[in-house]
Automatic annotation (TrEMBL):
It is a multi-pass membrane protein. It is found in: Cell membrane. Gene3D superfamilies: 1.10.287.1260, 2.30.30.60, 3.30.70.100. Residues 79-119 form the Mechanosensitive ion channel transmembrane helices 2/3 domain. The chain crosses the membrane at residues 24-46, 78-98. Residues 309-328 are annotated as: Disordered. It comes from Roseibium aggregatum. One of its GO terms (molecular function) is mechanosensitive monoatomic ion channel activity. Belongs to the MscS (TC 1.A.23) family. This is Putative MscS family protein YkuT.
Amino acid sequence: MNEQVEKLLESSEFFRMLLLESGIVANALRIMLIALIAFVASRILIHAIKIACERLQRSKTDPDSEKRVETVRRTTSIIVRIGIWSIAGIITLSILGISIAPLLTAAGVTGIAVGFAAQSLVKDYFSGFVLLLEGQLRVGDIVEIGGQSGVVEEITLRSIRLRDYYGQVIFVPCGAITSVVNKSMGFAQAVVDVGVAYREDTDAALAAMERVALDMSSDPYWSDRIIGAPEIVGVEELADSAVVLRLRLKVMPGAQWEVRRELLRRIKRAFDDEGIEIPFPHLTLYAGEPKGGQAPPLNLTISCKETGETEADITKPFSDRSNRETRS
């Protein structure tokens, strides 16, 4: 019995000396301490990021800012967590006596290879992060990106999903975005150009357009969409066949198209009531002439009272009516 106890004590002493001399216990304690520090540091930084994002969100009046700030917070937290634990892993390897120089070299070469192979993907994610951070887009905005227009349905770090006027879904990679035209941020302008004949009084036409815009602004149905007084820009262009007059209305974001359509309808009706002519292209018809071109021009005058024709007769082809007149 005593021999067994002595052997056990000798073996325990051996293991104790082995552990102390080899530094296994010390290394294990160091690794545990590093893991604890990494855990605490990541928790503190992530909590600080959360507080900063909450303060940023409270300073924003945009109702969609919550989603954007949450996306930024989540992405930043992931980056911080990966960075801290990567540093902790490198320190742990050095404690275990593993040379990290070859690993860093291999990681650098691998990173370069992956960077070349997936540079467009990395560019997409980085651009998407900056896009979310700056708040250039919101879900529901009407935008134009890279020649594509539509309503923003989803924003991710990888791409922007749009739905155009015809219901088609368009995916735009964030890395391909060079400029963004946001038509729904802050306010919009409903711009109306109307052409009138050169013989018309432009001041009278502009006054009629202003009256129409003021009446529309006081309409209860449209008053919540129109947020500014009408701006009479004036004569915009002296075109080939018309004097182009411009009017502008400050409206709610996204309402510029329906306000413009209704304003055009009302202006057309007002011009008709006041006898203001809106010019339009005319078509001139020529009867057949010999190749020599010596035939005199044929002047036609159609009158229901003189010919006794009805409106139905006038709508018939000219050749049918001329044949009937010849027979009579």
